[in-house]
Design brief:
Blueprint (H helix, E strand, L loop, with lengths): L4 E4 L17 E7 L2 E8 L6 E9 L4 E10 L12 E2 L1 E2 L6 E8 L3 E11 L2 E11 L9 H28 L10 H42 L4 E6 L4 E7 L4 H6 L13 E6 L5 E5 L2 E3 L3 E5 L6 E10 L5 E10 L12 E4 L12 E3 L5 E4 L12 E8 L9 E2 L7 E6 L5 E4 L7 H9 L25 E6 L5 E11 L2 E11 L1
Antiparallel strand pairs: 1-11, 2-3, 3-4, 4-8, 5-6, 5-9, 7-8, 9-10, 11-12, 12-16, 13-14, 13-17, 14-19, 15-16, 17-18, 20-21, 21-22, 22-26, 23-27, 24-25, 24-27, 27-28
Helix pairs in contact: 1-2
């Protein structure tokens, strides 16, 4: 009988965390009333820091864009300050740019108000803010500050001594010996006071720097620790960067993200020729468990998406070595994909065959893909006769889901037609907007939580965070079954 198989999952990407590993920027597409907007939020390296907000309107009817940051939930989430007016491009009148100070770690939102010939409209984009690093002080700046500190300290000591020595004598007279002695005593005392101030100032600075670095580390992707029992039930536990992480995040209070508390992805490593998208159930203490479907033995990369009660998305990251699993096929929202090709990735292919004989087309142009460039990835599902499909159903409330994975597994993004934002966080952000009659944001059909038929074409706003080779898994539902297509992309 097989004993407990325990696999400790290791953290792969220490640079940037939250629910999209290695993806620091936010991409969103939606409607601000009558205006359809494509929003890119480029987050700063450090917090407090300046984020760049880029907004592209689908038409030139939007004449003005205003942006303001505020908390996603809790105190201050409905008390926006005076918004900043985005600068309209003189070259492209449909493009607006603004800069916003982001002052705190955690789940924030950026509210965007568009005004124009159709009146006003508003939308809110959830933004998980965190510092990706502590910026070190350069040697030249450190040397300059040390010089200024010594210069000012010496000047302060000399000034204090001069005041005692010469303030009570007439012009042209020499200081008395007693005045000279008092001057030296005052300079020594002043030097001692300044030294104490500098000492405790250094202590305070070190404490602040350590606290800041602690916050940087805390927002790195949490590790996941798994156990597999004799019944092929996989248990997933989150392990943060310190003992306080679990108390602060409390996955027992995690909220549902388009119908599930966790989205678990198991990807064969390093080939990425097999992928499972599963939805474990939560048990006591914020632990998640799921009975695995049929799977071949091998090493798998684990990405597990959860959203805490404040709307901050997290991805648990790691590896697990699994034996052969004699289970059933995935059902419901669960799915699996296995490559039918044994050749190397084809970066020129824009067509992927579907299990039922249909196909999915990536409607991309022939130009090169560029890193850090916002793109709308468009896809179309066709029947065997090349006609557009008419049987697409909502998959967890939307037209499609996609997972973007870099070949070295350092980048992972679970995206939707709304973009890279968490759907649970987006719901929280939308809930705080004004009423529909006053211009509340409306989500387009392809991203809305819908139960009706879906169009054959859909898109995902996204931008590759760095050059390299990627695999994009695109998932849809047809005739009650989840189907997955995979495309390879080389990014410059």
């Amino acid at each position: 009988m097989r004993k407990f198989l325990t696999a400790l999952l290791v953290l792969l990407v220490p640079a940037s965390g939250y629910a999209h590993v290695g993806n620091p920027d936010v991409y969103f597409e939606g409607n601000a009333g009558p205006y359809h907007l494509f929003v890119t939020i480029r987050l700063p390296q450090v917090i407090p820091g300046v984020a760049q907000i880029e907004v592209r309107s689908a038409s030139n009817e939007a004449q003005s864009i205003e942006v303001v940051p505020l908390r996603l939930t809790g105190p201050g989430s409905n008390l926006p300050s005076v918004p900043d007016v985005a600068q309209r491009s003189k070259v492209d009148p449909q493009f607006f740019v603004s800069s916003l100070w982001l002052m705190e770690f955690g789940a924030l939102q950026v509210r965007i108000q568009a005004s124009g010939s159709q009146g006003k409209g508003e939308l809110a984009v959830p933004v998980p803010t965190f510092a990706r690093q502590s910026l070190p002080m350069t040697k030249s700046l450190r040397g300059l500050l040390v010089f200024l500190m010594l210069f000012l300290t010496l000047g302060l000591v000399l000034i204090a001594g001069a005041v005692v020595r010469e303030s009570s004598i007439a012009p042209g007279e020499k200081p008395q010996p007693s005045q000279a002695r008092r001057s030296k005593i005052v300079m020594v005392v002043t030097a001692a006071i300044v030294a104490v101030i500098l000492y405790f100032g250094g202590k305070w600075w070190g404490t602040e720097a350590a606290t800041y670095q602690h916050n940087v580390d805390r927002y790195k992707p949490p590790m996941a620790v798994t156990t597999l029992d004799d019944g092929n039930r996989l248990t997933i536990r989150a392990k943060g960067q310190d003992e306080l992480w679990a108390k602060a995040v409390k996955l027992e209070d995690a909220i549902s993200d388009h119908g599930h508390l966790m989205h678990l992805f198991l990807i064969s490593a390093p080939e990425m020729d097999r992928m499972w998208h599963l939805h474990p159930d939560r048990t006591e203490g914020g632990v998640f468990t799921d009975k695995l479907p049929a799977m071949p033995a091998g090493q798998y990369q684990v990405f597990a998406d959860v959203v805490d009660k404040n709307g901050f998305p997290w991805t648990l990251v790691g590896k697990v070595q699994l034996p052969k699993i004699d289970g059933s096929e995935p059902t419901g929202d669960d799915s699996s994909w296995t490559s039918v090709s044994t050749t190397k990735p084809d970066f020129n292919t824009k067509i992927a065959q579907l299990p039922d004989g249909g196909r999915m087309l990536w409607l991309r142009d022939s130009g090169a893909l560029k890193a850090n460039t916002p793109v709308s990835f468009k896809f179309r599902v066709e029947e065997k006769d090349s006609n557009p499909s008419h049987d697409l159903e909502p998959y967890m409330g939307m037209a499609a889901h996609a997972e973007v994975v870099r070949s070295d597994l350092s980048v992972f993004a679970h995206i939707h037609p709304a973009g890279s934002v968490s759907m649970a966080a987006l719901d929280l952000a939308q809930a705080g907007l004004i009423s529909p009659s006053s211009g509340r944001s409306e989500m387009p059909m392809q991203m809305a939580h819908s139960s009706g038929p879906m169009p054959a074409e859909f898109s995902f706003p996204y931008g590759f965070p760095q050059p390299g080779d990627y695999r994009i898994f695109v998932q849809i539902r047809r005739a009650g079954h989840v189907q997955t297509a995979a495309f390879d992309a080389r990014v410059q």
